[in-house]
Every structure is written in structure tokens, then in C-alpha cells.
Design brief:
membrane; 8% strand; four-stranded antiparallel sheet; transmembrane; alpha+beta; ABC transporter permease; transmembrane helix
């Protein structure tokens, strides 16, 4: 009698594993923030593309239909119609979304990226899983920094495309000049630089507070104070151009200072004599001056401020690593 031994021929089941590592762990943990960022970029990009194409065409068609482009006097041309209002609103919406990104980034980085993980202990758990604290913080900052830079680059290019496509239409509908916010930040490298500064300030606030809500408030307030200070010093980051004359000289650009000139060449406050010869003689006024930045100073100002902003961001990151090292050293 023969005994037949049957061997199981069922295939072995191999567990499927997804991508691993700090990169994928960070993306999985903060996937809600990632989708929000993708949505924000998509909305802002869509608005800019609409304004560049159908929005601009509709605004010009409206002005033509009202006879505003044939040289005939028309008081109605001083007021924008619905199409012009929509065009202007689209540009303002996109610029506002770009301008708010640094604050959203600072709040998220302080509260969710760093503060919450230090508060609930998940950061310390990660440090025990063959991940050094320095690698943990580096991954936390590198992943969102790359995504922020990529998204802001797209929005900056689209905003600049809209801004430079039709200068005549911008003048017609009364849009912001090159040196006014948010157009100034959105048309160059500053939009990306400030977004990265928001990330760095948020991370530093998270390391300082080690709790989500306090870190959120500290990050937003700190970033706001820095941005106000930088906007105040912006006109002085590059040498100004000066015009003088018997009357105030005409100019186009960012005005830094103006006033009156005495016979000795001294700059004084304008006594507002207008054409009163006696008043001018009493104050020894012989002319006027105006310091300003022309449009050709856009990139020198932009790149200089970008260098300052990125330096501040680097200092904030360096302080975050120093605080992390001190925290780990005390825990040992």
C-alpha cells in the first residue's frame, strides 16, 4: 500500500510594501496639506490664465463697445465696466493668494509640521527608529521647501506673464504699478523667498514653543513683523536716482523722498510756497528734488531683497537645528 504525500502548491503570499523612507513618510503624514497646496496653486494658476486670455479679451471688447478707444471724449470711460472689474478682480485674487502663502506656510510649519510632533511625542518616536534628529528635521524642511519652490515658481511665471502681456490694459483699468504690492512680490523671486522664509520661521517657532497652537501664533506674528520691517527698508536696498528742477520733476516709479532745495544745495522740507516769490525768497528755495526708483531698478531691488530674505531663512533654519541639538542633549 503506497502512501501519497500531497504538497501544497499554493503560491506564497508576499506582503506588498509601498515606498519607504523619510520622504514618503513626510508626504503621507501631511498629505492633507499637500492636497491643499496643489489646490491653491491650481486655483491661482487658473485665475491667472483666465485673466491673461478671456478676461483681457472681454475687457478690451467692452472698452471698444463704449467708444473708449477711438479718441472721442466719453466720461463713461473713466469708470470700468463689468468685464474690466472682473479682469481686475482676477488679478487681485491671484496676487492675494500668492501674498498669503508665506503666512499659511508659517502657520502650518509651526503648528502641524514641528510643534504638534514635539507636543505629542511622535518626533521622539521617530528618533528611536534609526532616524537621527538632524535627519528628521532636514527631511521635515526639505520636502515642503521643494514643493513650495516648485509651486511658487509656476505662479510667479504666470503672474509675470499676465503683468507684462498688455501694459496698456493695466493702465486702462487702473491696476497696480510694478512697485506696489502684491504685484512687486509676485513678479519676481521674492514670492518664493518669502514662502521659504515662512517655512523657516514656522519651524523655528515650533522648536521654540514645542506646542501646536502657541507655535502657530508665534510663527504668524514673527513672519508679519519681519515682512513689515523688510518692506520699510526696501527702497534703500539700491541707490536711488535723483531728479531736480525749478518745479517738481516728473517721474515714473517708486518715490523714496522729495522736497525743496536751498541756494546752498541743502535739502529741506517743502514750505509749499507754490509760485509765491516772496515765500520762496523767505525760505531760500531755488528748486526741488525727487529721489525715486525707475522700473529699471526692479531686478536689482528684487534680487537684493531676495538675498536678505533667504539669509534670514537660513539663520532661522540654523537656529532650529541648534535648538534641536540642545533639546536632544538635555534628554540624554
Amino acid at each position: 500500500m503506497t502512501t501519497v504525500t500531497l504538497k501544497s502548491t499554493a503560491p506564497a503570499v508576499t506582503a506588498r510594501r509601498g515606498p519607504r523612507g523619510l520622504l514618503w513618510a513626510t508626504l503621507r503624514l501631511h498629505r492633507s496639506a499637500l492636497w491643499f497646496w496643489v489646490m491653491l496653486v491650481a486655483v491661482a494658476a487658473g485665475v491667472l490664465l483666465w485673466a491673461y486670455g478671456p478676461g483681457a479679451d472681454a475687457a478690451w471688447a467692452e472698452y471698444r463697445s463704449r467708444g473708449c478707444l477711438d479718441g472721442r471724449p466719453n466720461l463713461g470711460c473713466d469708470m470700468g465696466g463689468r468685464a474690466a472689474d472682473r479682469y481686475q478682480s482676477a488679478e487681485a485674487l491671484a496676487g492675494g493668494l500668492i501674498q498669503i502663502v508665506p503666512f499659511l506656510t508659517a502657520a502650518w510649519a509651526g503648528a502641524a509640521l514641528i510643534g504638534r510632533e514635539l507636543e505629542n511625542g511622535t518626533a521622539r518616536l521617530a528618533w528611536t527608529q534609526s532616524v537621527s534628529p538632524a535627519r528628521w528635521l532636514a527631511a521635515k524642511l526639505a520636502v515642503p521647501a521643494a514643493l513650495l519652490a516648485a509651486g511658487m515658481l509656476v505662479l510667479t511665471l504666470l503672474h509675470r506673464l499676465l503683468f507684462t502681456a498688455d501694459p496698456a490694459l493695466r493702465v486702462t483699468v487702473g491696476m497696480a504699478d510694478w512697485h506696489q504690492s502684491p504685484a512687486y512680490e509676485a513678479n519676481g523671486t521674492l514670492a518664493t523667498a518669502y514662502a521659504l522664509l515662512g517655512l523657516a520661521v514656522g519651524a523655528l517657532a515650533g522648536m521654540l514653543q514645542r506646542r501646536a497652537l502657541p507655535a502657530l501664533g508665534t510663527a504668524v506674528l514673527g513672519l508679519g513683523a519681519l515682512m513689515i520691517a523688510l518692506s520699510d527698508v526696501r527702497p534703500y536696498l539700491w541707490p536711488v536716482r535723483t531728479l531736480t528742477g525749478k518745479q517738481y520733476p516728473e517721474w515714473t516709479g517708486m518715490v523714496v523722498d522729495d522736497g525743496a532745495l536751498t541756494s546752498k544745495g541743502a535739502r529741506v522740507a517743502d514750505p509749499i510756497c507754490v509760485d509765491d516769490a516772496r515765500c520762496l525768497a523767505e525760505h531760500d528755495i531755488v528748486g526741488y528734488y525727487r529721489d525715486f526708483h525707475p522700473a529699471s531698478h526692479f531686478w536689482p531691488l528684487q534680487l537684493t531683497e531676495t538675498a536678505v530674505v533667504l539669509t534670514l531663512a537660513a539663520l532661522a533654519v540654523l537656529l532650529s537645528f541648534r535648538l534641536l541639538n540642545r533639546r536632544v542633549a538635555r534628554a540624554v
